[in-house]
């Protein structure tokens, strides 16, 4: 076994191995198009993340791209089913592109530490998807006009991006495979995962979750990744309900399919000695 430094290996061999493991019924043209999306959008997006935003936690390029692939796999289960994939026909490309963009946002894009940086990322990724990078200037004055930023004969998106009206960003929508359309997270508040409006009679204040767009999207990603067997780390400021949300989800999992959770609590005051 030969070990390589992450920067020497790069992220592309990881993608090639992942593509090779996709179900055989997926059209070779669709696989090639998917690789083209990686080659087109990932290099410039990684450069943007490294130069123009602060990250919530340090990351490696391979880690972010692996998260992208895991998101795609977790959200494209219907494409892995031969019958459902065949039934989509020409719409399969729409689903593939939309899930890729969503996965890009919720892997590389969620590495941004602040709302201001997420707005910068929104502007960048929309410019990249619209093939307008030569005219784009980042907050730091960076230009994306080098050959490695915009590959020759790169693929393009044939599917619409998330809507941008009313100040909406790419973080405000999910792709609904049943509707073939982008749906705002706000449409799921009170009726989807992340906490409904019906509260149990014995609910205690400290265990209540007021449904918001944030709780809905976090619960959506949590559910998709857990069901796909992918590990995840939910991060955020203290007191924003992360622990309550995760515990509520874990305790609601079917007992005949999942092992009962064994929760170990940590806080900002937990020390190494206390853990031992």
UniProtKB/TrEMBL annotation:
GO biological process terms held by the UniProt record: microtubule-based movement
Pfam family, one: AAA_7
Single GO cellular component term: dynein complex
Domain Dynein heavy chain AAA 5 extension: start-end pairs: 35-186
Molecular function GO terms recorded: dynein intermediate chain binding; dynein light intermediate chain binding
The protein's name: Dynein heavy chain AAA 5 extension domain-containing protein
Organism encoding this protein: Chlamydomonas euryale
């Amino acid at each position: 076994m030969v070990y390589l430094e992450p920067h020497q290996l790069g992220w592309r061999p990881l993608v090639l191995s992942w593509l090779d493991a996709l179900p055989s019924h997926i059209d070779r043209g669709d696989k090639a198009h998917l690789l083209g999306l990686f080659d087109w959008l990932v290099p410039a997006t990684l450069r943007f993340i490294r130069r123009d935003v602060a990250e919530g936690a340090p990351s490696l390029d391979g880690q972010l791209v692996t998260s992208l692939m895991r998101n795609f796999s977790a959200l494209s289960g219907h494409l892995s089913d031969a019958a459902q994939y065949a039934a989509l026909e020409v719409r399969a490309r729409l689903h593939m592109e939309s899930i890729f963009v969503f996965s890009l946002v919720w892997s590389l894009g969620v590495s941004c530490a602040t709302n201001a940086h997420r707005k910068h990322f929104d502007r960048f990724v929309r410019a990249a998807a619209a093939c307008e990078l030569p005219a784009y200037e980042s907050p730091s004055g960076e230009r994306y006009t080098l050959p490695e930023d915009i590959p020759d004969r790169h693929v393009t998106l044939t599917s619409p991006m998330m809507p941008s009206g009313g100040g909406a960003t790419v973080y405000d929508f999910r792709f609904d495979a049943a509707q073939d359309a982008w749906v705002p997270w706000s449409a799921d508040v009170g009726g989807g995962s992340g906490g409904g409006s019906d509260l149990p009679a014995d609910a205690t204040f400290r265990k209540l979750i007021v449904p918001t767009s944030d709780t809905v999207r976090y619960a959506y990603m949590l559910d998709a990744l857990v069901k796909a067997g992918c590990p995840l780390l939910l991060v955020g400021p203290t007191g924003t309900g992360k622990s309550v949300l995760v515990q509520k989800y874990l305790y609601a999992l079917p007992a005949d399919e999942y092992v009962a959770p064994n929760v170990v609590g940590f806080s900002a005051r937990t020390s190494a000695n206390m853990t031992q």
